[in-house]
Amino acid sequence: MKKFVSLLLVILLAVSAQSQTIIQRDPIIEKMVNEVNSDSLKSYINSMVSFGTRQTMSTFTDNKRGIGAARNWVLDKFNAFAKNAGGRMTCYVDTITLPPDGKRINEPTNLGNTMAILKGTDPNDDRIFLISGHLDSRVSDVMNKTSDAPGANDDGSGAAAVIECARIMSKQAFGATIVFVTVSGEEQGLLGANFLATQMADKKWNLEAMLNNDIMGSNNSTETNIIDNTRVRVFSEGLPAFETEKVANIIRNYGLENDGKARQLARYVKETGERYVDNLQVVMVYRNDRFLRGGDHTPFVQKGFAAVRITEMNENYDHQHQDVRTENGIRYGDLPEFMDFELLRKNTALNLSCLANLAKAPAMPQEVKVESKNLTNYTTLMWKAPKAGAVKGYYILIRESTSAFWQKKIFTDKTEVKLPYSKDNYFFGVQSVNKAGNESLAVVPVPAGR
Ligand SMILES: [Zn+2]
Question: Does pTM top 0.90 for this prediction?
Answer without folding.
Answer: yes
